Amino acid sequence: DGYQIAATRFYAEGPLHGHLIMAGATGVRQEFYRRFAEFASRRGFTTLTLDYRGIGRSKPASLKGFTMNFTDWATLDLAAGVDAMADDTVPLFMAGHSFGGHALGLLPNHHRIRGCYVFATGSGWHGWMPTLESLRVRLMWNLVLPLVTRWKGYSPWAMLGMGEDLPLGVYEQWRHWCTFKHYFFDDPAVPHMAEIFAQVKTPIVAANALDDLWAL
Q1: How far apart are CA 199 and CA 211, in angstroms?
Q2: What is the pTM of this model?
Q3: Coil, strand, or helix at residue 184?
Q4: Which residues contact 39 (CB under 8 A, 6 or more apart)?
């Protein structure tokens, strides 16, 4: 859509086995995935990392008044990355971390991806979490974040030590979806979600860490 996205391409060393795109988590800069991308490139995969709009090097001068929504990261930014990396001569794979796993189902060009590995992709609903974490999360969503977000005009996650600052549209949509047991699949405002995800035929390997309190 004309918005400029910052990305880094790590070229394969030795024989080329395929291309790989790293779909990052909410509020995580692409630098976090640098060592993974270097590891993949040493094993013959040209790998792309990117910053979604509003994050890292894709951030505007100010997030205050920056208009977008959560799904733009998949339908626009990540989709552009997929188009940039797709090559008919070698397969394209995707690794998705947290939101990056959800993003596969939102991609308009998911058919270009041969296989996907997702990690720590959960619903974010407090009811799935241990009691103490559930209380902490509800306090954050219902008291702390509404106050500081109203004050700043965006969600200042960096100030809270929780990652990159988030554009207002991302914060509002994410907070809303986390109120539902099955995340956006339960949101009556987007009843088409299940139908969109059902169209994905990409083979998926999904993994999680047993000590992840958010994505059990």
Answers
A1: 32
A2: 0.93
A3: helix
A4: none
CA-CA-CA-CA torsion sign (190, 192, 198, 202): negative
Residues in the chain: 216
Nearest CA among 65, 105, 123, 85 for reference residue 5: 85
- The residue whose two tokens read 């590891």 is 39
DSSP 99-127: HHHHHHHH-TTGGG-SEEEEES-----GG
Read off the tokens for 198: 């059902």
Instruction: Give the tokens for residue 193.
Output: 């979600």
Tokens matching residue 143: 């008291």
pLDDT one-digit tens code per residue, 168-199: 999 999 999 999 999 999 999 999 999 999 99
Strand partners, 90: 87
pLDDT tens readout for residues 133-164 = 999 999 999 999 999 999 999 999 888 888 89
Q: Tokens 């990159």 — which residue?
A: 164
Point out the residues of the chain with pLDDT beneath 70.
Answer: 216
Scan for tokens 């306090």, then name that residue: 139
Backbone angles phi, psi at 155, to 5 degrees: -95, 110
